[in-house]
Amino acid sequence: MSNVLPNVPHPPSVPGPEVGQPPTVEPDGGATLLAWMRRMRDERPVWRDEAGNAHVFRHEDVVRIMSDPALYSSDTVGRLGGGETPSGVLLLLDPPQHGKLRRLVSRAFTNRLISELAPQITTLTRELLDAVDGDRFDLVEAVANPLPVMVIATMLGVPVADHDKFQAWGEQLLATDASDPESVRRMELTGKEISAYLQEFVDARRRTPHDDLIGTLVQAEVDGQRLSDDEIVSFATLLLLAGHITTSVLLGNTLLSLDSAPERWEALRADRSGIPAVIEETLRCRPPFTRVERVPTRRVEIAGEVIEPNTMIHLWLLSANHDERVFDDPAAFVPERPNSRQTAFGHGIHYCIGAPLARLESRIVLELMLDRFRTVRVDAGAPLSFHGSNVFGAERLPLVVRRA
Ligand code: HEM
Questions:
Q1: Alpha carbon of 361 to those of 151, 274, 279, 403: distances in Å?
Q2: pLDDT of residue 254
Q3: Residue 3 has what pLDDT?
């Protein structure tokens, strides 16, 4: 049995509720953050940061809030004065608009359509791994960053060669802080650039039907309703935002988890059937998004704390996944454990529409790496660097491999 954070020393002293902001994942890979959240679950299950935003830590509260979209709105942009809520951004919509759009876009995300992508994902991954020279490489740079963007580009039906552009846009959007109007303005500018690019493809699909994702969205109809150009473009943009860094980080996190339990690499080489369980336990231990946001529509009380309407509430998925009230010995990486209650993909009506795709990509990457490499270890001599606070995972992941 191995600990979730083997690559970093245990924090010397655990901070408590007195800090103004949650500890960041950088520089210690999340060791301090996890230790802090453990204290918060016990001592302050609902905590206010220095700006008055509420943070929720226990699994029970996090899941209950995600299950109640009438009381807890996802429209953080519209409700917190960040400007008008852009149409088509599924993530920010509440019922009934959310349900209508979700039913339409679900047409492009069926299990069948996703599993049909497997051969293309395999080819792209092979090409990326073929380009790796020698026995040392950075997994994020070589595979984890480019692959999810290439897959989204393939799905949408835009040139895979434009993936650099997509990658930069995705990173800019991810840096958005919904409570900062300047940051929201920058997001809108990037959004306009992306929209202009995507609109050309929507126009082309309106002229000539096609079965790629943009083509499917152009055709999609539920109860006589169709999507507008704006909705299609916003949804395609959201895919970049929601599906790029998250999947990239999951790939890196899977390797980090396996590095903490090297005997499992050998076991997986002998029997690939354990791959899905390794991915699920990685999602529990190291969920790529640390948290999601909601805004109460009325005055609410959570774990004894009264929260006024239109207050930002951060729901810590990372903390829910490490709640000892639900998961025994939560820091331990144990793929055999029951972990279906992990929250990495959210819960309720906004449950991640791309979850099957993220799982498929991770499985294919792991299978191809197991084929090629007898051993894979994180390069102990090279420094790891991590994302900030909203994303839990490595920004760079130097590996040392022994080829098969
Ligand atoms: C490991 C990878 C991924 C993780 C951890 C992840 C996580 C999440 C989470 C936590 C939510 C819920 C947000 C909320 O409740 O506010 C969500 C929603 C969403 N995700 Fe993912 N995601 C991943 C991959 C993807 C991919 C690959 C795509 C598409 C290409 C995608 C598209 C979406 C969309 C469109 C939504 C909004 C669904 C809705 O509002 O109904 N995600 N994701």
A1: 9, 16, 11, 22
A2: 97
A3: 46
* Burial (CB count within 10 angstroms: exposed 0-12, middle 13-18, buried 19+), residue 274: middle
Tell me what pLDDT residue 44 has: 96
Would the CB of 243 count as within 6 Å of ligand 1? Answer: yes
Residue 23 is which amino acid? P
Domain of residue 356: give its range. 40-403
- Looking at the CA of residue 289, tell me the nearest atom of ligand 1: 5
The Cα 218–Cα 229 span in angstroms is: 8
Residue 35 covered by a domain: no
Pocket-testing residue among 145, 234, 352, 357, ligand 1, by greatest number of atoms within 8 A of Cβ: 352
30 lies in some domain:
no
CA separation for the pair 266, 5 (Å, rounded) = 20
Query: Residue 97 belongs to a domain with what CATH number?
Result: 1.10.630.10
Query: What is the structure's pLDDT at 209?
Result: 92
Q: Ligand 1 centre from 242 Cα, in Å? A: 5
Please name the residues in contact with 42: beta carbons below 8 A apart, sequence gap of 6 or more.
none
Buried b / exposed e along 7-39 (16+ C-beta atoms within 10 A):
eeeebeeeeeeeeeebbbbeebbbbbbbbbbbe
Asked if residue 27 belongs to a domain, the reply is: no
350 contacts 66 by C-beta, under 8 angstroms: yes
Residue 345, ligand 1, Cβ within 6 A: yes
> Of 198, 209, 289, 204, whose CA–CA distance to 236 is shortest?
198
CA distance 198 to 232: 9
Number of domains in the chain: 1
- Long-range Cβ contact pairs of 191-197 (< 8 A, separation 24 or more): 191/86, 191/234, 191/237, 193/169, 194/169, 194/233, 194/237, 194/240, 195/233, 195/234, 195/237, 197/158, 197/165
Listed as ranges, residues in the chain with pLDDT below 50 are: 1-4, 6-9
Q: pLDDT value at position 277?
A: 97
Integer Cα distance of 370 and 333 in angstroms: 19
Q: Is 215 in the pocket of ligand 1 (CB under 6 A)?
A: no
Cα angle for residues 223, 225, 230 (degrees, 5° grid): 155
Q: d(Cα 84, Cα 187) in Å, to the nearest integer?
A: 12
In a domain, 33, yes or no: no
